[in-house]
Amino acid sequence: MSNTNLPHWPYPRWIAHRGAGRLAPENTLAAFRLGAAHGYRMFECDAKLSADGVVFLMHDTLLDRTTNGSGSSGEQPWGALAQLDAGSWHSRAYAGEPLPTLQAVARWCLASHLQLNVEIKPTPGQEEQTGHAVGILMNSIWPRSRVQPLFTSFQPASLQGAKDAAPHIPRGLLVDQFADETGDQALQTASQLGCSALVLNHALWTAELVARVHSAGLRCSSYTVNDEWAAQRLIDLGTDGIITDRVDLFSPAA
Ligand code: G3P
Ligand code: CA
User: Fold this and answer.
1) Angle between the 29-37 and 102-112 helix axes, to the nearest 10 degrees?
2) What is the position in ligand 1's atom list of the atom closest to the CA of 152?
3) Considering just the CA atoms, what is the radius of gyration of the chain in Å?
4) 202 in catalytic set
5) In the chain, where are the structural domains located?
6) Which of 38, 59, 90, 132 is catalytic?
7) Best mutation site among 17, 42, 121, 171 for ligand 1, i.e. most ligand atoms within 8 A of its Cβ?
8) DSSP structure string for 149-218
9) Phi, psi angles (nearest 5°) of residue 150
10) Which fold has domain 14-61+100-244?
């Protein structure tokens, strides 16, 4: 049954997680290029703030796992972060791949006519200011005439910061638990933040929950879906978006 109260949702079903999942070093331009080579038209990435206010892509708070640096990335200025090798940890083929700024990735998406899902992933304690900086940046570079990026976050304060800076850019609340009380709270928070979507751990979706979230006027999206049976379940449930690592398994045209 169609629900005419659902927000506009101009995004493809399939979204490549961190660029190309695990096939390339996550959150690098090389990963985005590989995801695009597999036919993906929309990309999820993780954005945080350097000590001097530059928005760049990195999942972890610490540099150690995905670069040759160490310590908290949010305590380093961009000039130092830009020198790091964010590719060798993955494989020799990507040795020397740099951390990208969000601006560089967004400009690449615009030039390539691709869509972007920016997960605002703040260093702890920088929730609101990271959201605000992401909103200011994307508002300044992304034309109103184009399909807008999608902002998501587990942190309501980050979505509030993004909303204050760029109210016209759609938002989705990321949720990893949806029991009775936490579910009510998530729906209330999403409504207060004017969200277009709830983005859940995919295992949480049931037919009842999809109906409840749709009737609350929110789209239903999922992370991170890497098995065919799980993807088919979500499609059968009538959900709206799937974030996957497996750009080599799922055809984004399906
Ligand atoms: O954006 C959805 C998903 O990426 C959230 O989990 O830990 O992979 O950032 P994580
Ligand atoms: Ca993420």
Assistant:
1) 20
2) 1
3) 17
4) no
5) 14-61+100-244
6) 59
7) 17
8) PEEEES-HHHHHHHHHH-TTS-EEEEES---HHHHHHHHHHHHHTT-SEEEEEGGG--HHHHHHHHHTT-
9) -115, 125
10) TIM Barrel (3.20.20)
Indicate the pTM of the whole model: 0.97
The ligand 1 atom nearest the CA atom of 17: 4
Predicted pLDDT at 2: 57
Ligand 1 neighbours, Cβ below 6 Å, are: 17, 44, 46, 59, 119, 152, 174, 223-224, 243
Which atom of ligand 1 sits closest to the CA of residue 243? Answer: 2
Mean pLDDT of 128-136: 98
What pLDDT is stored for residue 232 in this prediction? 98
Q: Cα separation of 225 and 55, whole Å?
A: 27
- Apex 137 CA angle, 136 and 138, nearest 5: 100
Q: Which ligand is nearest to the CA of 176?
A: 1
Is residue 17 among the annotated active site residues?
A: yes
Q: Tell me the per-residue pLDDT of 141-194, one tens digit each, with 9 for 90 and over.
A: 999 999 999 999 999 999 999 999 999 999 999 999 988 788 899 999 999 999
